[in-house]
């Protein structure tokens, strides 16, 4: 239930309770119904005043929530886009190819995109950084140890599955809210 709806339900419950109290205290066998309606009208006026004061506050909170959700959606999209690009740059290892400049470019993009993780919760950040670190580890190992096509192909075969799984998790970060 939204904050706004909870507020309005609470106001309605308060209005009913106060109306019942007004009826109990104001309407006695010796009093006229006019007293009840006077008291109920005053109570309704107070509730209307409270409603008028709180509604703009709730509207600002709704706007803030909408902006935050929009920022979060943009973050998911950007992280997924950069992650897929990085994966693609490393996936050329399946043919034994290696372009160190291209990898360096994507590693730079990954670092820049990493700044967006401030919008994520802890679980989502761990997913992003696990993927990012795995990519760096793959690139570092290739640079250090695999200098021919055949060895790079074999190495990629051993790493591709786990790296793809981590990319899939990055692509579905919104599921970890």
Number of discrete helical segments: 5
Rg estimate, integer Å: 30 Å
The secondary-structure element order is HHHHH
Structural class: mainly alpha
Our estimate of the beta-strand percent is under 5%
Instruction: Work out the count of structural domains.
Output: 2
* Biggest sheet descriptor: none
Q: What is the share of helical residues? A: over 70%
For the termini, the CA-CA separation is: 17 Å
Low-pLDDT runs of 5+ residues are: none
* Total beta strands: 0
Mean pLDDT: 82
Structure description:
The chain has 177 residues and is an all-alpha fold. It has two domains: 3-65; 71-176. The chain is 82% helix and 0% strand. The protein has helices spanning 3-26, 33-91, 100-114, 122-145, 149-171. The chain is rod-shaped and about 105 Å long. The chain starts with a helix and ends in a 6-residue tail after the last helix. The relative contact order is 0.09. The mean pLDDT is 82.
Architecture blueprint of SSEs:
Blueprint: H1 3-26, H2 33-91, H3 100-114, H4 122-145, H5 149-171
Helix pairs in contact: 1-2, 2-3, 2-4, 2-5, 3-4, 4-5
Task: Compose a concise summary of this entry.
This protein has 177 residues and is mostly helical.
Main features:
5 helices; mainly alpha; 177 residues; single chain; 82% helix; rod-shaped
């Amino acid at each position: 239930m939204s904050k706004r709806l909870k507020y309005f339900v609470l106001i309605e419950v308060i209005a009913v309770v106060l109306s019942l109290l007004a009826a109990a205290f104001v309407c006695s066998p010796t009093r006229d119904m006019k007293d009840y309606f006077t008291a109920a009208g005053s109570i309704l006026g107070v509730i209307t005043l409270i409603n008028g004061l709180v509604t703009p506050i709730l509207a600002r909170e709704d706007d803030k929530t909408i902006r935050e959700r929009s920022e979060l959606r943009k973050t998911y999209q950007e992280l997924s886009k950069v992650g897929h690009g990085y994966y693609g740059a490393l996936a050329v290892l399946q043919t034994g190819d290696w372009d160190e400049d291209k990898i360096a470019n994507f590693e730079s993009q990954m670092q820049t995109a990493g700044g967006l993780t401030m919008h994520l919760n802890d679980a989502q950040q761990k997913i992003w950084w696990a993927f990012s670190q795995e990519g760096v580890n793959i690139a570092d190992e290739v640079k250090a140890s695999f200098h021919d096509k055949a060895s790079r192909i074999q190495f990629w075969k051993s790493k591709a599955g786990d790296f793809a799984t981590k990319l899939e998790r990055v692509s579905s970060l919104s599921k970890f809210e």
